[in-house]
């Protein structure tokens, strides 16, 4: 039993039961899944922000540096490639790159002749910063899912992939 100042851990079944009572026949099976996903997403986002604060990095900078680091040597991408891979606008990339460059984490190189493509490269300081942040974050996040067995983790990942694929298809058909 929870007290008024304690949040309920899982209200999905309570919500579904209330709708079954109030409007019998209403399809409520999605509540048990989607309400839990939204709740988990909020808790995970809060935890990620907290851990990133501990390692001294914000999510936008981590996204930029991680994208460069995962690209492989020479850890360089154009601003256009960064926008595409980070799923953000060119203006947002410019802001991120400018902040990271100011902090010595990346450097902009001269555009290739005849193009406006500006290459952005991870510096040694940025390389070190992203590896420390990713190591701390992924180690912590692995601990968050260890309540599930390895087989359960794989099954959950598989089911979420199926759901996300369908949601992406629906989103692209509605745009």
Textual characterization of the structure:
The chain is mainly α and 175 residues long. The protein contains seven helices and three strands; from the N terminus they run αααβααββαα. Strands 1-3-2 form a three-stranded antiparallel β-sheet. Helix 1 packs antiparallel against helix 2. The longest helix has 27 residues. The protein is elongated and about 65 Å long. The chain starts with 11 loop residues before the first helix and ends with a helix.
SSE topology sketch:
Blueprint: H1 12-22, H2 29-55, H3 59-70, E1 76-78, H4 79-86, H5 90-102, E2 106-108, E3 119-122, H6 124-145, H7 150-173
Antiparallel strand pairs: 1-3, 2-3
SS strand fraction: 5-15%
Low-pLDDT segments, ≥5 res: none
Strand line-up of the largest beta sheet: 1-3-2
Total E-strand runs: 3
Oligomer: single chain
Kindly, what is the distance between the CA atoms of the first and last residues, rounded to a whole number of angstroms?
45 Å
What is the typical, i.e. mean, pLDDT? 91
User: What kind of sheet is the major sheet?
Assistant: 3 strands, antiparallel
Encode the helix/strand succession as letters: HHHEHHEEHH
- Coarse shape: elongated
* Helical content class: 55-70%
Class by alpha and beta content:
mainly alpha
CA radius of gyration: 21 Å
Tally of helical runs: 7
């Amino acid at each position: 039993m929870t007290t008024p100042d304690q949040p309920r851990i899982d209200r999905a079944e309570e919500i579904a039961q209330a709708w079954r009572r109030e409007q019998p026949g209403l399809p409520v099976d999605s509540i048990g899944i989607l309400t839990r996903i939204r709740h988990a997403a909020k808790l995970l986002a809060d935890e990620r922000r907290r851990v990133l604060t501990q390692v001294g990095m914000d999510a936008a900078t981590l996204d930029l540096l991680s994208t460069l680091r995962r690209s492989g040597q020479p850890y360089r991408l154009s601003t256009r490639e960064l926008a595409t891979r980070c799923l953000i606008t060119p203006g947002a990339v410019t802001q991120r790159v400018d902040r990271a460059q100011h902090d010595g984490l990346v450097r902009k190189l001269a555009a290739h002749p005849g193009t406006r493509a500006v290459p952005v490269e991870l510096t040694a300081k940025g390389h070190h910063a992203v590896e420390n942040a990713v190591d701390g974050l992924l180690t912590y996040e692995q601990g968050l899912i260890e309540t599930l067995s390895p087989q359960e983790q794989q099954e959950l990942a598989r089911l979420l992939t199926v759901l996300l694929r369908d949601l992406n298809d629906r989103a692209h058909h509605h745009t």
